[in-house]
Amino acid sequence: MLRIHEVTKKFVPHEFIRSLGKETLTDVKLGDQVEKIVTVLFTDIRDFTTLSEKMTPEENFHFVSSFNARLGPVIRSNNGFINQYLGDSIMAIFPENPEDALRAAVGMQKAVHELNEERKEIGLPSIRAGIGMHTGSLIMGITGDEFRMDAATISDTVNTAARIESLTKYYKSPLLLSDHTLQYLNGQDNFHFRHLGSVRLKGKNNLLSIIECINGFDELQLERKLQTLSLFGNAMNSYHDQQFENALQLFQSVLTNDPDDMTANHFLTNTKKYLREGVPKNWTGAEEMISK
User: Fold this and answer.
1) Which of 73, 109, 148, 257 is buried most, with the most CB atoms less than 10 Å from its CB?
2) Is the separation of the CB atoms in 207 and 286 below 8 Å?
3) 62 Cβ partners below 8 Å, 6+ apart?
4) Biggest CA pair distance of the chain
5) Strand pairing of 175-178 and 129-144?
6) pLDDT tens digits, 9-49
7) Cα-atom radius of gyration of the chain, to the nearest Å?
8) Does any domain span residue 13?
9) What is the 3-state secondary structure (H, E, C) of 15-36?
């Protein structure tokens, strides 16, 4: 019986079962549910389709498995649990302080750096991963019917976290979080943030503030971003105040000191566009996302 219990924990996280007030999977029943404030994290391998086209199905499976094997322990060691493996993506839940999720995200970035060093030694290309997180209410429960039950999560928090992860491609940043996560975060002083402004996700009415956490960059990149942190903040203030000439100079200064700052380059490109074409009359700086 103990053996069966240990095996079932690998398919349904014990943390999920305990959140329902149960100790083992045999204790749960259809309709059991609980609502909690949690932080949901999504990570995704960038350009996976391009990578996978160069591999056989067996190589693809091994690649994804090795990627997940690197990141899974980082999540668990920071008080999170993996809710789903979604091919080249992972969905994780952190039931306590969002600081757990941020520590895990930074650790995951470092794990990817280490994996890339190993891939470089055998002549394989580097991989990149985007991580997004959002904090909010989530219902965890048992759904299905009497013949087939499943552990499910139901909440817009999940959808929003997934959307934020997709914004890592847009902003060219590896780690993004919402202002909701920042509000619930107890240990803000343990991290370094850059505020990127607001977005309106497709199908949403309310704006969502997006923040970048820079702690997971490698040592050289982190040093450069810390040196330009206030400069970047001033550039963003000028950008949102429509002082585009000043923003142009400030973003260029950031990139002079940190040529690899792709997020600064994103806003520099936008700034040049607005200087050239102008902005709509009611422009507020908020980004309107037209796709999911």
Assistant:
1) 109
2) yes
3) none
4) 70
5) parallel
6) 445 566 666 666 565 666 666 767 677 899 999 999 887 77
7) 21
8) no
9) HHHHHCCCCCHHHCCCCCEEEE
Whether 186 shows a pLDDT value over 90: the answer reads: no
First-residue to last-residue Cα distance in the chain: 45
Contacts of 272 (CB under 8 A, 6+ apart): 248
Q: Is residue 150 part of a domain?
A: yes
Of 216, 236, 268, which residue is a domain's last?
216
287 φ, ψ (degrees, to nearest 5): -90, 135
Same domain, 242 and 254: yes
Q: pLDDT band at residue 67, thresholds of 50, 70 and 90?
A: confident
pLDDT per position as a tens digit, 126-144:
889 999 999 999 987 777 7
d(CA 288, CA 167): 12
Task: For tokens 């060219």, name the residue.
Answer: 172
The pair of three-digit structure tokens given for residue 235, joined into one six-digit string: 């550039």
